[in-house]
Amino acid sequence: MSAPRKCPVGVLISGRGSNLQALIDAGFAESFPARIALVISNIEDAYGLVRARAAGIPTRVITHKGKTREAFDAELDAALREAEVEIVCLAGFMRILSDGFTKTWEGKLLNIHPSLLPAFKGTQVHERVIAAGVKQSGASVHFVVPELDAGPVISQSVVPVLMTDTAETLAARVLEAEHRLYPTAVRLVCEGRARLEHGEAVFTS
Ligand code: GRF
Prior knowledge:
Blueprint: E1 7-13, H1 18-27, E2 34-41, H2 47-54, E3 59-61, H3 69-82, E4 87-90, H4 99-104, E5 109-113, H5 125-132, E6 136-143, E7 153-160, H6 167-190, E8 194-197, E9 200-203
Parallel strand pairs: 1-2, 1-4, 2-3, 4-5
Antiparallel strand pairs: 5-6, 6-7, 8-9
Helix pairs in contact: 1-6, 5-6
C-alpha cells in the first residue's frame, strides 16, 4: 500500500517551540497525515527555529517590528502560500492576527491554548487557574476566529490541578498533555474529520 498523502502544514512560533517539536516528531510516522512545510517565527532567536533547522524544515523569520498588523500578516500569508501550506498551526505564536488573516485561513488555522476553553482565555493562565481554585485544567486545540481564544474547540485534554501546584508545576503538566493533543488535532483536521462549518466544529468518524 502506498503511503498516505501528507498535508503541508505551516507552524507559527515565537519561542521555545516544544509543541512544534511534538508536531515534528509526530510527522516521522509514515501514517501521520501532515508534514511541516514551513516554520515562521516573528522572533529571530526563537529556540523553535533551532528545532526546525535540526529537522531539516525550511524556516523564515518575519519580524512584526515597525509594521502594521495588516502588513505583517500579509507577509505571513505570502510566505505560507509560497510554501503551498494548507493548514496553519499557531504554536506559542505571540502575535494577535488580523481579522483579514483569520478570515482568509478560516477552517485551516489552529491554535493550542493551555486551558480548558472557554475557561481561562488569554495570558497568565496557570496563575489564574490556581487562584480560582479549580481542580481540573488542561489544554485545548481550536479553530482560530477573530476573537482571541474563542474559536470552536477541536480537541481537549484534561489534567488535574494538585493542592501543591505552582503555576510552573501546573504549566509543565499541561504542556505534556499539549504535546499529545496537538498532533491528534492536526490529524483530525488533515484527515477532514474535524471541520469548521458555519462557525462550528463538525466531526465525522
Ligand atoms: C504553550 O503552552 C501553548 O499552549 C501556548 O504557548 C505555549 C507554547 O509553548 N499557546 P511552546 O513554545 O510550544 O513550547
